Amino acid sequence: MKAKLWGTRGSIPSPGPETIRYGGNTSCVGVTLSDGSLLALDAGTGIRNLGLSLPEEPTRLHILLTHLHLDHIQGLVFFAPCFRPQTEIVIWGPASPEASLRDRIARYISAPLSPVEVRELPCDVSFRHTPETEWEIGPARIRAASVAHRGPTLGYRIDDGEDSLAYIPDHEPALGADLDALEEEWISGFALARDASLLIHDGQYADAEYPDHLGWGHSSLSHALSFARRTGGERTVLFHHDPLHSDEQLDRLGAEARERWAAAGGDPAAIELGVEGAELEARALLPSSAKAP
Amino acid sequence: MPTASQKPLELILARNLMSALSTPAFLVDEGGLLVFYNEAAGMLLGKRFEELGTVGPEEWGALFGPFDRDGEPIPYDELPLVVAVRDDRPAHANFEIRSADGTHHRVEASAFPIQTTHGSRGAIAVFWPAAENGTGG
Description:
Number of strands of chain B: 5
Largest sheet of chain A: 7 strands, mixed
CATH class of chain A: Alpha Beta
Strand content of chain A: 15-25%
Largest sheet of chain B: 5 strands, antiparallel
Oligomer: heterodimer
Number of helices of chain A: 5
Strand content of chain B: 25-35%
Radius of gyration of chain A: 18 Å
């Protein structure tokens, strides 16, 4: 299983010379399964380039939305396959007691925010609430679970053979809790991320920034490292970068993450910051030295 | 696929909130099993949750009661928490509980179910010291 990061930024697109290396597009990860089929995780502005990279042949695509904040759906109306009649798109997302997934997304894909309506999209699009139990897409088993963020929000786990990928881009598991002391079953997102080959996780704030953003639904570096250590994955990518963080700031944050990971006994190569355009292997069986400390 | 038990997010968030409260509060899962109570509840009971752990109805009743005004044990399935989980409705009661040192405390308990888009996740109960002429149980 392979993953490509098409958008790594959180909150709002942040193009410019200060963000050119880590990227300014918002959350989107393309996952290529073992049979060659493709899943898109979230539909932030990064999904536009994902769409442009796809051939125009008839195909079926699945988009797994974690939640409906704008930085995770803004790219939908700029996703080229949406405008191809030969394409079938299945959009998965969290249920809400208030309205269906389709109706909630239609609030964005409708006037005056959008030039087209959902019903006008030429593709064959359907909307599905994620089930509580795992389901299959091609060779992969998918599981979704609610995680600590603002509003109904999911994390996903994709198992394809021995490989596994956990995707929890917006997550504040330490809100009101001590992650280092908490029992595993009481940690938000734990079962999704446990022993994953690749964990893509919220790392929005430096520790010094977190107190001013308590309850905003995101992790500090310390929280992300604790979560990665507790869940025991083989490789962690910190994701959903703060829009105010320049490339230089992210370089420093990444260096600090690797130093702290190594100081705790882990392999510094097993933790990194997400870079737009990066292609990652979600492959099991890394050497044990690369496991979480 | 992971096999570890994982508490639903709604229970996790409820526990986190309860941990920050100075009001005694109790949490049961969708099966009615007591899965957490906070420090204030531990002070009332004379036993911290970490000491007691997850307990079922019979053990709970043997340890803490509760008891009605005549000192008779109240069946577990009549407790507000259990009613809230079983019937998906709020419940309120006035009763006595017995702490670990044998002291009896008269309390009022209010419980409400935790409902989600996937159904019931459990219930929360909050205890207050009972008013002298508190509502009947």
